[in-house]
Amino acid sequence: MNRWLVAGVALLAAAALGLRAPRLALRPLHNDEGVNAMKFRLLWDNQTYQYDPNEFHGPTLAYLTLPAAWLEGSSDFNRFTEATFRSVPVAFGTGLVLLLLLLAPEFGRAETLWAAALTALSPALVFYSRYYIHEMLLVFFTALCFFCAWRCLQSARPLWALAAGIALGLMAATKETFVFAVAAMGLSAATTAAWSRLSGGVPSSRPRWRPQHALLALLAALAVALVFFSSFFHNARGPLAALQACLPWLRRAGGVTEHVHPWTFYFERLLFFHARGGPVWSEGFVVALAVVGFVVALSGRAALPALRLLLRLLAFYTMWLTILYTALPYKTPWCLLGFYHGMILLAGAGAAFLWRACRSRLARTVASVALAAGLGHLAWQAWAGNFGCDDAGTPYCASPKNPYVYSQTVPDALRLVETVEGIARVAPQGYDTVVEVMAPESYWPLPWYLRQFKNTGYWEGIPDAPLAPIMIVSASLRAAFDERPEKTRLMAGYFELRPNVFFELYVNTNLWASYLKTLPPEPD
């Protein structure tokens, strides 16, 4: 492999890391991140993971967080930070750039470098590489499976089939939606074969596919999935629970959920998104280049037969996966990563084709300026979406003015946590002080932020005897504990957890008086 290509991809991977790794605690944990962090706590404390077929997705995220936790050098879960957990998707998001070296021999140097640059700078990929959820791992394992299967087709070496099978098993053990990617791969193979026959463009060098390779890959996938779902053979019911997961997730995908959106949902975020008071966000540059790559793939204008075949497989895979995700009523913005990564690969081919199509010096100058401007715009959006702030000082990474922010915990929730921790420091019981949280809606990620409190209870409504020293109560419950005759509790603050989701803080009057004495005097 060309050493300059390897150096170029490594440099772009470093750029990807530079956008993904800094200031990982800038944004409060999303409720899903809080759930995943506390699920990891069960693994950390009990040395095993119990897969739940109804929620939480697969076990790979928890197990692959172990190295990040070990690097902390502490056995105390409370010492872990947001950066501990978010460093895991950072690693996989950066690794997505390096994976492109597996395609490079047939994909081409220019195509590989363009795809690497777009992967490194894509605002969507950067944003969700800093998100402690399963999606970036699923995208990485899916790409690994596709790329290893391609290497097996080209080389006929069983080790590549084994690697593809391992990646497939990791996909299955990461998130139930892996079935969409597998379906898209199968449909892509069938559509590519049909298109090649109809167009008369059957490659002269056919891939060397063998049935025993498929069997080896399948056995490897089953073995890996079995190991993870059984919690490395500590949970015999885990594999059965994985099969039972089909029904609840099918219901959710079919629209039995609050996350139902129209088919345009993903494209509104990718092509043009503008909220009042915020900038215009768009990754239309990538989508436009992907359309060019798609046309090149179907037209057969790629010079080499292997590249023609690879582009068609990528094109139809991306097409089918996009159709599947847009057709499903259930939508969350991070789900677009699967098919959008396919678009980025096609965009790499589209950019290389446009450059080669420019014959004159003037045309190449115009193309260079346009492509550089597109990359610069992506880089600016990636930076602004994660580190920039609006005019009010709110970080875009926690603002609905960002297209990839979805039901995000707002910074005001950290003010609530700081207040509760300040009260604990003056309470006689310290972190043993009883805290009661009452909310009919989701109270996450509060369990993560209150993880040091040893006596914390959570209710969907108001319990029979609710008067704990500290109570965090959803405003929708209209608790009014401060209006009771005994006057032992006061409402100490009103806090926003998520957009339009408010909580009231009730504190024992004596405890609150002690806390107020620790605050600096207000300026005159």
Q: Provide the helix percentage.
A: 55-70%
The overall average pLDDT, rounded, is: 91
In what order do the strands lie side by side in the largest sheet?
4-3-5-7-6
Low-pLDDT regions? none
Rg: 26 Å
β content, as a range?
5-15%
Report, as a whole number of angstroms, the end-to-end distance.
70 Å
Largest sheet: 5 strands, mixed
| H/E series | HHHHHHHHHHHHHHHEEHHHHHEHEEEEH
Kindly state the number of beta strands.
7
Q: How many structural domains can be distinguished in the coordinates?
A: 2
Count, helices: 22
Shape: globular
**Helix/sheet category:** alpha/beta
Provide a quick synopsis of the model.
Helix content is 57%, strand content 7%. The strands form two sheets. A five-stranded mixed beta sheet has the order 4-3-5-7-6. It has a two-stranded antiparallel ribbon with strand order 1-2.
Features:
524 residues, alpha/beta, 5-stranded mixed sheet, two-stranded antiparallel sheet
Could you explain the architecture of this structure?
This protein has helices at residues 3-20, 31-46, 60-63, 66-71, 82-98, 104-107, 109-121, 123-128, 135-155, 158-172, 178-199, 211-229, 238-244, 246-253, 265-271, 284-299, 305-327, 337-357, 361-387, 412-426, 446-449, 509-516, and strands spanning 273-274, 280-281, 435-438, 456-459, 470-474, 489-498, 501-508. It has two domains: 3-387, no CATH class; 412-516, no CATH class. With 524 residues, it is of the alpha/beta class. The N and C termini lie far apart (70 Å). 57% of the residues lie in helices and 7% in strands.
